[in-house]
Protein 1
Amino acid sequence: MNLNDWKRLKRSGGYRRKVKNRYKELIMSGSSEIKSSALGGIIEGSVSRNIFPRLPHDSESEEVQNSEEEYIEETTDYDNNHEFLKDMQSWAIKFNIPHLALNELFTFLNKRLGNVLPKDARTLLHTNKETVHITTSDPGQYWHNGLIKCLKNTLQGLDLNTLRNTISLNVNIDGLPVYKSSRHQLWPILCNIFEIPHIPPFVIGIYAGEGKPSDLNAYLESFVKEMNELEEYGLDTSLAPNESKIKVKLRAFICDSPARALIKGKFSIDII
């Protein structure tokens, strides 16, 4: 056993309990010398560092081996404490703790508690490993979530026999100011299924930039392409009755006056 393993063993709760119980037995046996030294080392249920035996070199005693086994068992139980990890995850999300700060915190806690937390905050927070594709849409940027992907996820587990293999979509486009003292805006593209009104709308894509999008081709190209594909070929999914494709049609755009003025020319050319 090397020096680092021995130091870790001395910090374990199982080893401390063994030393404490052993000294209690010696105290009960009536040895005055042991009693005085033990009382100096045991304070409020904890064992002082000066009562640990010396570091073993070539051979290990049976007591040390048993203590190491107990330490491994305790660490394993702590690693399996999902409630603790879940509380840590909720705390980090609630207070928006940066990943760099979480990584430093995990390093400190793992040194003292025995690797009870992952080394990287992304593991605890279950960060999505998929690459996020962001395109330039002057004067900002656009992220496309995917219309076909969202439809498949939304229809997962639903009984589609009542839909007669046809669904119609309501699309909403609107601008949202992010800050009162800034021109930074978000322009999300939202969608819901008219035949299933109880399902909440899903996000097709989001534009973010200083002011509304001026490059409509970059902003709407991905959505228009997927919408044309759905209207022509339908939604290819095994969820449809008799394994046939689900027909998808565009029912309406729900927009206020500024958003309607922004997108009206684009859709009149490419969809209608």
Note: The mean pLDDT is 75.
Protein 2
Amino acid sequence: MARGKAEATRGRLLDATKQILVERGVGQLTLDAVAELAGVSKGGLLYHFPSKAALVEGLAERLRDYTRANLERAAEAGTVRTFLETSLPHSAEAEHYWAVFSALRSGIDVSDETRDLVQEVFTVWSDALRADVADPVLADIIRLVGDGLYLGAVLGLEPLDAPALERVFARLDVDLHGAETGR
């Protein structure tokens, strides 16, 4: 029971960190603000996260968890299709990326491990696409299209309409010369 409560507290603290970064900006991210918004004492916050950098690392770990879940889905539904579909994240996940990216670019002294976690999110998809797509250039094109879709979602830009997106996804799921991607 205590472990479940600790995990719930960690979750509230990370949710509060994300909310502050997204709604108020990195300049408003303080340990006091996170503790207050999460409804946790500052001592409770420090027990779980001793610094702003540790909070950002916790957010980066969540990104890794999103990616792992999406890779599991890709094993069943196909790497290309899953990658492209998950490149249009739901708003909560897009906000999560925004929070991490803004923290990384803000000058908060984050650890190398945090930067490595974020890099891992991108590297595992590149590796999966290269393993699943016979043409390595096409694999890179697919990754870049997905990254562009993701960046647009994180920035809150309107994506292509659904029929146009489906045409793009279908085209990229087939080699430029009509050969199926290697699944």
Note: Residues 175-183 have pLDDT under 50 and may be disordered.
